[in-house]
Amino acid sequence: MHARAIVINMCVEFHVS
């Protein structure tokens, strides 16, 4: 995965959690 995708994924999981 691209670094940007990883950052977005982490942000999404943080907000969802």
UniProtKB/TrEMBL annotation:
It comes from the Eukaryota. This is Uncharacterized protein. It comes from Anguilla anguilla. The lineage of its organism: Eukaryota, Metazoa, Chordata, Craniata, Vertebrata.
